[in-house]
Amino acid sequence: MKKPAIAAILVMTHLPDRASAERMAACLIERRLAACVNIMPPCHSIYHWQGKVESASEFPLQIKTTLDRYEAVESAIQGLHPYELPEITYVHIDGGEAAFIQWIEQESRN
Is residue 32 in some structural domain? Predict the structure, then answer.
């Protein structure tokens, strides 16, 4: 398997409701910070926060972009996110169909 030359990444965050998830997804796409944003079905999260165990229903987002766009994506998420400390993580896409990876790079350009 040939490794793609493009540094594609998958950025993840969670939003408290569908409306805020849709606003964030639309903003990232309109600003060409991402090729695609998947709004996943709600999940139930259990986590430690400020010394207590909390739980919440959240909408996960999967954001397909490139490593060189990550700082702008992170900044946009921070600016739009209602949480005090939003989850913003990414993983490298180390393989995949070459034309799809190229599409991510093409659609995430300025």
Answer: yes
Calculate what percentage of the chain has a pLDDT beyond 90: 89
Say if residues 35 and 9 touch (Cβ distance below 8 Å).
no
Tens-place pLDDT, residues 65-98: 999 999 999 999 999 999 999 999 999 998 899 9
With beta carbons less than 8 A apart as the criterion, state whether 11 and 63 touch.
Answer: yes
Q: Which domain holds residue 31?
A: 8-107
Query: With contact defined as beta carbons under 8 Å apart, do 32 and 109 qualify?
Result: yes
Interatomic CA distance for residues 75 and 88, integer angstroms: 10
CA distance 35 to 69: 11
